[in-house]
Each structure stands twice: as structure tokens, then as C-alpha cells.
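User: Second chain of the day. Same drill as before.
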Amino acid sequence: MSHPFVLNLIPTAQAANDDAPSKAPALLDARKERVLALHTAGVSRRKIAEATGETEHYVRQVVKGVPVVEKLPTSPFERAVARCYPMAISRTGIKDHQFRAIMNECYGVEWDTEKGKYKGRCTVDQLKRVRERIRERATADGLSAIFVMDWINTNEPVESNTAITQCVLNLQDAIQEAVDEFMQVSGIQHVEEGLDLALARKKQEFAARRYILKLAVKGLSKEPVARLQERTLDQVNQLAGTPDAPGVSVSVIKPHHPEPKWNDAFLDFCEGQGWLHPDHYPEVELAISAAGY
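Assistant: Same format as last time:
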């Protein structure tokens, strides 16, 4: 039985009369360069796909056989950059609470006995340096790093910004309305000779706005609200000629919250609230057990 003659042409085969094969390296297109840059930097395939918009199948084909050359991060700074970078270059960016959580994990935390919670050891300068390094690295990779404020809805960024802007305008109107009402009732009408009445009213209006905000917005003033009201009442009584009038007595007790021992979540919470002393743990646990819980 005769067999038909088949000529197999192999693209990679070199022709017999080809004495000068080309040695010029193949140029990568921009898509592959971006994928490979992230891969060699240690970014996972899934994160690369999110950052570049490519499919995971395409990313897998491009990085196949290409080793990761970046060394494992050792310092807290390097670890923070390595962990935050893939999130920062993703479509939705990295939220502020996510960024700070990673910074706390990398730099460590310590217990704040006054506030009763853990606080990060990283400084403002370290936060700034990590953000700057991530932005520099993204620029070098032809990408953009986005650090997102927690209130932004990343699925509807424009709509959420429009909504909060309207909230601000409504609040500004309400504050101005309150200040105008105060000035109408208690605005300065007369000043001593030689003083500018318009300037005095302007200063009073500014101070009234600040005072209203300090009382209404928790945490705006470093001075405790109770202490501020006590100081205010003392000045008012002196001006009214009744310095001995009963006022608000404020006893400032510096709170102390011991660090949780993580033995029993409920007892730790009670201890943190100051409801229970650790010495009473055994009898409380015994009572709980006797009750069948």
C-alpha cells in the first residue's frame, strides 16, 4: 500500500541556506509588560487580573514559567507596602480602615488603657511614607494607586459624593440658622467708645459658631464637654455678679481599661467597662457554671 508524501513545515526550523538567523529579542506588548511587572513583583494572578482588567486565563498564560524575582519583604515598611499595593491598584482601591489594619499588623499595636482599645504603633510619618512608596511603585508599573476614604461607596462613588455634599450643605444651613438665631437674641448691640461694633459682632458670631459645634459634635474639642460647660457657667455667674451661684460640678476621673486577657470574652468586656474586678472572676465563673450555662 502506497503512502502519500507529506511535507511537514516546522515554523521554528532554520532554513539550510539561512546563514544569519535574527538575534533581535521579541518585543513585549504593553499588556504583557504590565502583567509581568506585577508578577515579578510578587502580586498574585487574581490581583494582577483585577489591577489590569485582564482575564485570569490570560494572566496565567503570560506568567507561565516566569519566576518571581522580588525578595520577600523583611521590614515592617516593606511588608506594609507589599500587602497594601495589590489592593491599592485594584479597581476599588484600598479603604482607609483596610490600610490602617494592615499597618497595625505590620508595625504592631499597644493597649490604650484610657480609651480601652488597641492603638497602632505606626506614626503619621510612616503612614505617609508607605502611601508614597505605593504611589511611586504604581507609577513605575503604569498604574494608579487609590486610597479611598471609608465613607465612599466604591460601587457608586459619584452618587455617594453627591449625597454627602448635600448633607454638608444642609448642615451648613442648619448651623448658620442657629448662629443667626443666637445673634438675633443675644448679639452685641453696644460697645465701649473707641471700639468697632461691627468687628465685635463679627468676633462674637465666629465664637458662637465654634461653641455650638463643640457642644454638638462629639470629639471636635479636646476639652471635655462637661468641663467646657463648667467653665462657661463660672464666667457667666461672675459677669452676672453671682459668683457664688451653684454651678455644674465636674469630677474628672481618668478612665482606666485593663488590657483584655482573652480568657473569656464576656468577662473581658465587663472588666473593660469597669464593672468587674479580675479578682472576682473565679466566683463569677462558678456562679455561671452552677446556673447551667
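Residues 1-26 have pLDDT under 50 and may be disordered.

User: Great, on to the next one.
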